[in-house]
Amino acid sequence: MTLITFGELFCGPGGIGLGAKQAKLITADDIYEIDHQWAIDSDIDSCRTFQHNICPDEPHKVICADIREFDITKLSPVNGFAFGFPCNDFSIVGEKKGLNGKYGSLFSYGVKIIQHLEPDWFLAENVSGLKSDNQGKTFSQMLEILSNAGSGYRLTTHLYRFEEYGVPQCRHRIVIVGFKKSLDKIFRVPMPTHNNSFMSVESALCNPPIPANAPNHEYTRQSPIVVERLKYIKQGENAWSANIPSHLQLNVKKARMSQIYRRLVPNKPAYTITGSGGGGTHVYHWEEPRALTNRERARLQTFPDDFIFFGSKESVRKQIGMAVPPKAVQIIITAILKTLAGVSYPYVEPKWKDIFSEDGSFQLSLSLDNP
């Protein structure tokens, strides 16, 4: 058996961790699996969640610390490294401050780890809004920095539509996979598994039904005015598109986000599950006048029902919304294992093509079309 040692930064509750743990490649001569060595996050609840579900027998592998104050020289070498750096400064919901924002600057700490440890490969994930920040200049700058980190990496950058990979949610995320140039390997974007047969919300939540005693399945007490408002909002509509009586309408003069009190459509994937936002952003049932429970949100993120989240109800909502769907991660990391093993697999051309000249210098052909 070949164990691929693995480390994570900004690990959250374990979306990437679980997907990596589930990834496995069996060839005629060997078995390839991921072996977690360490995971870092500053959120205590996320660290507890990760420990309980990913490494319950080795809780010391989870380092609860602010990476800005942590000595990365203490980290053990790993073959693979992942960092889903915080997306607040690139999200359409955030203030879009880019690399100069509080969260955007955290990207540099992932680069520092790559520089220091020089893993064979890395995986970086962020929101699709990253591509348009500063007219694409921020994204281009990030890719150039990553390609030149350490002894150099060959990047494969793609805008994944996770509904095309069996996730019951329209969640579009940029995933950058880098392989050390000296390995002479090129990662290919795995072919979608659900191009013409998306997993629907109703199928995800009702087949099978969620047990009443499932963890993190507490119902939210909706106020009478919210219940009354939801009665006027049809499937797929939100607080702005529905025909709502004036006394139930929201008094909002600024940007009107489409997620506000937006109802799901049962025979389609959900819209994006988020971890931030106030009232009206909690994802609303297509039939019952209520927000989804955290367990229901977790199912739409492809976490199994026995995956327990720790912390307050709001903390759990945030953890779920910020996580990367494990099902999508499993597919991507399995493709990484196949790349390492030299096993071919069906693939598609990446959304962006990174072009390297013969001397290894970086050029980028960037598409800014809408997802």
Task: Name its key features.
371 residues; alpha/beta; Rossmann fold; eight-stranded mixed β-sheet; two-stranded antiparallel ribbon; 12 strands; disordered C terminus
Concise synopsis of the structure shown:
This protein is of the alpha/beta class and 371 residues long.
Layout of strands and helices, then pairs:
Blueprint: E1 2-9, H1 15-22, E2 24-26, E3 31-41, H2 44-54, E4 62-64, E5 80-83, H3 107-117, E6 121-127, H4 137-147, E7 153-161, E8 172-180, E9 189-190, H5 201-206, H6 224-230, H7 294-300, H8 313-322, H9 326-341, E10 347-348, E11 353-356, E12 362-365
Parallel strand pairs: 1-3, 1-5, 3-4, 5-6
Antiparallel strand pairs: 2-3, 6-8, 7-8, 9-10, 11-12
Helix pairs in contact: 1-9
Q: What does it look like?
A:
With 371 residues, this protein is an alpha/beta fold. The chain is built from nine helices and twelve strands. Strands 1, 2, 3, 4, 5, 6, 7 and 8 form an eight-stranded mixed sheet that branches. A two-stranded antiparallel ribbon has the order 9-10. Strand 5, helix 3 and strand 6 form a beta-alpha-beta unit. Helix 1 (15-22) packs across helix 9 (326-341). Mean pLDDT is 89; it is low at 88-96, 355-361 and 365-371.
